[in-house]
Amino acid sequence: MLVDAHAHLDAYSDRAEVVARAKAAGLVHVVAVGQWREGAGMAGAQDAIALAKEDRSFFSATAGIHPHDAARATEADFVELRRMCADPDVAAVGECGLDYHYDRSPRDLQRSVFVRQIRLAKELGKPLVVHTREADVETAQILRAELGPDGGLIHCFTSDWAAAQRYLALGMHLSFSGVLTFRNAGAVRDAAGRAPLDRILVETDCPFLAPVPHRGKRNEPAYVALTAAELARLRALPADELAKATTENARRALRLPGGSP
Protein backbone atom coordinates (compact mmCIF):
# COMPACT_ATOMS: atom_id res chain seq x y z
CA MET A 1 0.00 0.00 0.00
CA LEU A 2 2.10 2.88 -1.29
CA VAL A 3 1.76 6.49 -2.37
CA ASP A 4 3.97 7.94 -5.09
CA ALA A 5 4.33 11.45 -3.70
CA HIS A 6 5.78 13.04 -6.86
CA ALA A 7 5.16 11.95 -10.45
CA HIS A 8 5.23 13.85 -13.76
CA LEU A 9 2.39 11.99 -15.45
CA ASP A 10 2.12 14.37 -18.39
CA ALA A 11 5.33 12.76 -19.71
CA TYR A 12 3.66 9.52 -20.86
CA SER A 13 1.98 8.80 -24.19
CA ASP A 14 0.99 5.40 -22.71
CA ARG A 15 -0.33 6.80 -19.44
CA ALA A 16 -3.26 4.39 -19.12
CA GLU A 17 -0.87 1.44 -19.14
CA VAL A 18 1.51 3.19 -16.72
CA VAL A 19 -1.36 3.81 -14.28
CA ALA A 20 -2.58 0.22 -14.61
CA ARG A 21 0.89 -1.06 -13.69
CA ALA A 22 0.99 1.30 -10.72
CA LYS A 23 -2.27 -0.08 -9.39
CA ALA A 24 -1.11 -3.65 -9.99
CA ALA A 25 2.06 -2.88 -7.99
CA GLY A 26 -0.04 -1.90 -4.98
CA LEU A 27 -0.10 1.89 -5.20
CA VAL A 28 -3.12 3.53 -3.62
CA HIS A 29 -2.44 7.13 -4.68
CA VAL A 30 -0.24 9.17 -7.02
CA VAL A 31 0.49 12.89 -6.73
CA ALA A 32 0.58 14.30 -10.26
CA VAL A 33 2.95 17.26 -10.36
CA GLY A 34 1.86 20.02 -12.71
CA GLN A 35 4.33 22.70 -13.70
CA TRP A 36 4.98 25.43 -16.20
CA ARG A 37 6.45 24.15 -19.47
CA GLU A 38 8.16 26.28 -22.09
CA GLY A 39 5.84 26.67 -25.06
CA ALA A 40 2.89 25.28 -23.10
CA GLY A 41 2.63 27.59 -20.08
CA MET A 42 0.57 26.05 -17.29
CA ALA A 43 -0.83 23.25 -19.49
CA GLY A 44 1.08 20.65 -17.48
CA ALA A 45 -0.66 21.78 -14.32
CA GLN A 46 -4.02 21.75 -16.06
CA ASP A 47 -3.36 18.16 -17.10
CA ALA A 48 -2.56 17.17 -13.50
CA ILE A 49 -5.72 18.87 -12.23
CA ALA A 50 -7.83 17.09 -14.86
CA LEU A 51 -6.43 13.75 -13.65
CA ALA A 52 -7.33 14.58 -10.06
CA LYS A 53 -10.87 15.54 -11.04
CA GLU A 54 -11.24 12.34 -13.05
CA ASP A 55 -10.32 10.07 -10.13
CA ARG A 56 -9.93 11.83 -6.78
CA SER A 57 -9.42 8.57 -4.93
CA PHE A 58 -6.23 7.77 -6.86
CA PHE A 59 -4.82 11.12 -8.02
CA SER A 60 -4.05 14.48 -6.46
CA ALA A 61 -2.49 17.43 -8.27
CA THR A 62 0.05 20.13 -7.59
CA ALA A 63 0.78 23.29 -9.58
CA GLY A 64 3.97 25.33 -9.61
CA ILE A 65 6.79 27.04 -11.46
CA HIS A 66 10.11 25.17 -11.34
CA PRO A 67 13.30 27.15 -10.65
CA HIS A 68 14.55 26.23 -14.12
CA ASP A 69 11.70 28.30 -15.54
CA ALA A 70 11.79 31.26 -13.17
CA ALA A 71 13.18 33.59 -15.86
CA ARG A 72 10.59 32.61 -18.49
CA ALA A 73 7.33 32.60 -16.57
CA THR A 74 5.24 35.73 -17.14
CA GLU A 75 2.94 37.69 -14.86
CA ALA A 76 0.04 36.09 -16.70
CA ASP A 77 1.45 32.70 -15.73
CA PHE A 78 1.47 33.74 -12.07
CA VAL A 79 -2.15 34.86 -12.33
CA GLU A 80 -3.03 31.48 -13.82
CA LEU A 81 -0.97 29.68 -11.18
CA ARG A 82 -2.88 31.38 -8.40
CA ARG A 83 -6.21 30.45 -9.98
CA MET A 84 -5.12 26.84 -10.33
CA CYS A 85 -3.72 26.53 -6.82
CA ALA A 86 -7.01 27.80 -5.39
CA ASP A 87 -8.75 24.77 -6.94
CA PRO A 88 -9.69 22.27 -4.20
CA ASP A 89 -8.26 19.45 -6.31
CA VAL A 90 -4.78 21.00 -6.07
CA ALA A 91 -3.22 19.54 -2.94
CA ALA A 92 -0.06 21.66 -2.85
CA VAL A 93 1.88 24.49 -4.44
CA GLY A 94 4.98 23.42 -6.36
CA GLU A 95 7.33 22.09 -7.25
CA CYS A 96 9.23 25.30 -6.65
CA GLY A 97 12.56 26.21 -5.13
CA LEU A 98 16.21 26.71 -6.02
CA ASP A 99 18.46 24.83 -8.44
CA TYR A 100 22.06 25.98 -8.29
CA HIS A 101 23.35 22.91 -10.14
CA TYR A 102 22.03 23.80 -13.59
CA ASP A 103 21.37 27.53 -12.98
CA ARG A 104 18.95 27.67 -15.90
CA SER A 105 17.50 30.88 -14.44
CA PRO A 106 19.43 33.65 -12.68
CA ARG A 107 19.63 33.00 -8.96
CA ASP A 108 17.96 36.26 -7.96
CA LEU A 109 14.95 35.35 -10.10
CA GLN A 110 14.90 31.81 -8.69
CA ARG A 111 14.75 33.27 -5.20
CA SER A 112 11.99 35.77 -5.96
CA VAL A 113 9.83 33.19 -7.77
CA PHE A 114 10.34 30.74 -4.91
CA VAL A 115 9.28 33.31 -2.33
CA ARG A 116 6.18 34.23 -4.36
CA GLN A 117 5.08 30.61 -4.36
CA ILE A 118 5.76 30.12 -0.65
CA ARG A 119 3.58 33.15 0.03
CA LEU A 120 0.90 31.80 -2.29
CA ALA A 121 0.86 28.52 -0.39
CA LYS A 122 0.63 30.40 2.88
CA GLU A 123 -2.22 32.58 1.55
CA LEU A 124 -4.19 29.56 0.34
CA GLY A 125 -3.41 27.41 3.39
CA LYS A 126 -1.74 24.67 1.36
CA PRO A 127 1.49 22.73 1.76
CA LEU A 128 4.55 23.39 -0.38
CA VAL A 129 6.52 21.00 -2.62
CA VAL A 130 10.15 22.13 -2.70
CA HIS A 131 12.86 21.40 -5.25
CA THR A 132 16.39 22.16 -4.08
CA ARG A 133 19.71 21.22 -5.61
CA GLU A 134 23.09 22.43 -4.35
CA ALA A 135 21.20 25.18 -2.50
CA ASP A 136 20.28 23.62 0.84
CA VAL A 137 21.52 26.40 3.11
CA GLU A 138 19.75 29.15 1.20
CA THR A 139 16.60 27.06 0.69
CA ALA A 140 16.40 26.50 4.46
CA GLN A 141 17.01 30.20 5.14
CA ILE A 142 14.16 31.22 2.84
CA LEU A 143 11.83 28.61 4.30
CA ARG A 144 12.70 29.73 7.81
CA ALA A 145 11.75 33.31 6.92
CA GLU A 146 8.69 32.62 4.74
CA LEU A 147 7.12 29.20 5.34
CA GLY A 148 3.58 29.14 6.67
CA PRO A 149 2.07 26.71 9.18
CA ASP A 150 1.00 24.24 6.51
CA GLY A 151 4.56 23.04 5.91
CA GLY A 152 5.25 20.70 3.04
CA LEU A 153 8.00 18.45 1.77
CA ILE A 154 11.45 18.47 0.25
CA HIS A 155 10.89 16.38 -2.84
CA CYS A 156 13.59 14.02 -4.12
CA PHE A 157 15.80 14.63 -1.09
CA THR A 158 19.40 14.06 -2.23
CA SER A 159 21.45 15.78 0.46
CA ASP A 160 23.07 14.74 3.74
CA TRP A 161 21.97 14.44 7.36
CA ALA A 162 23.01 18.02 8.18
CA ALA A 163 20.67 19.36 5.49
CA ALA A 164 17.94 16.96 6.54
CA GLN A 165 18.08 18.26 10.12
CA ARG A 166 17.62 21.84 8.93
CA TYR A 167 14.47 20.91 7.01
CA LEU A 168 13.10 18.70 9.76
CA ALA A 169 13.55 21.52 12.26
CA LEU A 170 11.29 23.65 10.05
CA GLY A 171 8.55 21.00 10.13
CA MET A 172 9.17 19.76 6.59
CA HIS A 173 8.89 16.17 5.42
CA LEU A 174 11.57 14.44 3.35
CA SER A 175 10.57 12.55 0.21
CA PHE A 176 13.00 9.92 -1.10
CA SER A 177 13.26 8.84 -4.74
CA GLY A 178 15.07 6.11 -6.65
CA VAL A 179 18.33 7.95 -5.93
CA LEU A 180 18.22 6.09 -2.62
CA THR A 181 19.15 2.91 -4.50
CA PHE A 182 22.14 4.39 -6.38
CA ARG A 183 25.57 3.09 -5.42
CA ASN A 184 27.01 6.59 -4.84
CA ALA A 185 24.12 7.78 -2.63
CA GLY A 186 25.61 6.92 0.75
CA ALA A 187 24.86 10.32 2.29
CA VAL A 188 21.22 10.10 1.19
CA ARG A 189 20.88 6.62 2.67
CA ASP A 190 22.40 7.87 5.92
CA ALA A 191 19.80 10.64 6.15
CA ALA A 192 16.99 8.25 5.21
CA GLY A 193 18.02 5.90 7.99
CA ARG A 194 18.15 8.66 10.62
CA ALA A 195 15.05 10.74 9.80
CA PRO A 196 12.00 10.25 12.03
CA LEU A 197 9.68 7.57 10.67
CA ASP A 198 6.71 9.96 10.72
CA ARG A 199 8.47 12.47 8.44
CA ILE A 200 9.51 10.38 5.43
CA LEU A 201 7.76 9.76 2.11
CA VAL A 202 8.59 7.88 -1.08
CA GLU A 203 8.30 9.10 -4.66
CA THR A 204 9.51 8.34 -8.17
CA ASP A 205 9.95 11.81 -9.72
CA CYS A 206 9.13 9.82 -12.85
CA PRO A 207 9.91 9.65 -15.69
CA PHE A 208 13.32 10.51 -14.18
CA LEU A 209 15.60 8.73 -11.69
CA ALA A 210 14.51 5.14 -12.10
CA PRO A 211 15.73 3.03 -9.17
CA VAL A 212 18.12 0.12 -9.51
CA PRO A 213 17.75 -2.25 -11.40
CA HIS A 214 16.05 0.09 -13.88
CA ARG A 215 18.53 2.95 -13.55
CA GLY A 216 19.02 4.77 -16.85
CA LYS A 217 15.63 3.67 -18.18
CA ARG A 218 12.26 5.39 -18.04
CA ASN A 219 10.87 5.53 -14.53
CA GLU A 220 7.20 5.08 -13.63
CA PRO A 221 5.07 5.06 -10.46
CA ALA A 222 5.11 1.26 -10.07
CA TYR A 223 8.83 1.47 -9.34
CA VAL A 224 8.24 3.39 -6.12
CA ALA A 225 7.99 -0.05 -4.53
CA LEU A 226 11.74 -0.51 -5.14
CA THR A 227 12.56 2.72 -3.32
CA ALA A 228 10.25 1.73 -0.47
CA ALA A 229 11.97 -1.66 -0.23
CA GLU A 230 15.39 0.01 0.07
CA LEU A 231 14.05 2.39 2.71
CA ALA A 232 12.61 -0.53 4.68
CA ARG A 233 15.97 -2.31 4.46
CA LEU A 234 17.85 0.75 5.72
CA ARG A 235 15.53 1.10 8.68
CA ALA A 236 15.29 -2.65 9.41
CA LEU A 237 11.51 -2.53 9.11
CA PRO A 238 9.07 -4.98 7.55
CA ALA A 239 8.01 -3.75 4.11
CA ASP A 240 4.36 -3.48 5.09
CA GLU A 241 5.19 -1.36 8.15
CA LEU A 242 7.29 1.02 6.06
CA ALA A 243 4.54 1.22 3.42
CA LYS A 244 1.90 1.99 6.06
CA ALA A 245 4.06 4.74 7.61
CA THR A 246 4.99 6.48 4.36
CA THR A 247 1.42 6.32 3.11
CA GLU A 248 0.11 7.87 6.33
CA ASN A 249 2.82 10.52 6.13
CA ALA A 250 1.97 11.41 2.52
CA ARG A 251 -1.73 11.65 3.31
CA ARG A 252 -1.04 13.87 6.30
CA ALA A 253 1.63 16.08 4.72
CA LEU A 254 -0.30 16.67 1.49
CA ARG A 255 -3.83 16.19 2.87
CA LEU A 256 -4.55 13.39 0.45
CA PRO A 257 -7.88 11.56 0.51
CA GLY A 258 -8.33 8.26 2.25
CA GLY A 259 -7.11 8.89 5.79
CA SER A 260 -4.84 6.27 7.30
CA PRO A 261 -4.54 3.01 5.34
Indicate the topology.
Layout: E1 2-7, H1 15-24, E2 27-35, H2 43-54, E3 59-64, H3 75-85, E4 90-99, H4 107-124, E5 128-133, H5 136-146, E6 152-154, H6 161-169, E7 173-176, H7 186-194, E8 200-202, H8 224-235, H9 239-253
Parallel strand pairs: 1-2, 2-3, 3-4, 4-5, 5-6, 6-7, 7-8
Second rung of CATH, namely the architecture: Alpha-Beta Barrel
Structural class: alpha/beta
Number of domains: 1
Assembly classification: single chain
Q: What is the terminal-to-terminal distance?
A: 8 Å
CA gyration radius, whole angstroms: 17 Å
Proportion of residues in extended strands? 15-25%
Helix content: 40-55%
Instruction: Average the pLDDT over all residues and give the rounded result.
Output: 96
CATH superfamily: Metal-dependent hydrolases
Instruction: Please state the overall shape, judged from the principal axes of the Cα atoms.
Output: globular
Helix count equals 9
| Low-confidence spans | none
CATH top level assignment: Alpha Beta
As laid out across the biggest beta sheet, the strand order is 1-2-3-4-5-6-7-8
Q: What is the CATH fold-level name?
A: TIM Barrel
SSE arrangement, N to C: EHEHEHEHEHEHEHEHH
Strand runs, count: 8
| Main beta-sheet annotation | 8 strands, parallel
